[in-house]
Amino acid sequence: MNKSVLIGEKVELCPLDTEKDSALFEKWNQDSDYMRQLDLDPAIIFSAALIKEWFEKEENDDPIFAIKLLDESRTIGDIGLYGLDWVNGNAWVGISI
Questions:
Q1: How far apart are CA 65 and CA 27, in angstroms?
Q2: How far apart are CA 17 and CA 75, in angstroms?
Q3: In the prediction, which pLDDT does 1 show?
Q4: Rounded CA separation 91/45 (Å)
Q5: Nearest CA-CA partner of 9 in 97, 65, 71, 66
Q6: How many helices (H) and strands (E) does the chain have?
């Protein structure tokens, strides 16, 4: 069964795999260029365990999806919706590739 939320020509959006993706995000979290452009907040390095815990908390509050290449099924980033306003159909979008 395909768990994709949205499929494009080259990528798909899928639910995060907290086990695999937390290790990948830990690696990205140690890349100073990635972290400098990710946010205005100071970069803080988190372990895979803390990232996994954050993923599990966020999935109940704000949806976060993995961006995967269709031809390799490899996670290349994530996209999240934050501050969802269901009444007005608004949200902040965060994309990391």
A1: 18
A2: 10
A3: 44
A4: 26
A5: 71
A6: 3, 5
Angstrom distances, CA of residue 4 to CA of 15, 33, 61, 68, 69: 7, 29, 20, 10, 12
Residue for token pair 């086990």: 19
Instruction: Determine which helix (DSSP H) or strand (DSSP E) holds 55, and give its type and residue range.
Output: helix 48-61
Q: Tell me: pLDDT of 84 over 70.
A: yes
**80 beta partners:** 64, 94
> Is 96 in contact with 77 (CB distance < 8 Å)?
yes
From the CB of residue 25, how many other CB atoms can be counted at a distance below 10 Å? 24
Q: Specify the pLDDT at position 88.
A: 95
Higher-pLDDT residue of 1 and 50 is: 50
For residue range 52-79, what is the model confidence (pLDDT) as tens digits? 787 777 666 788 899 999 998 889 998 9
Q: CB under 8 Å to 22, separation ≥6 — which residues? A: 48, 49, 51, 52, 55
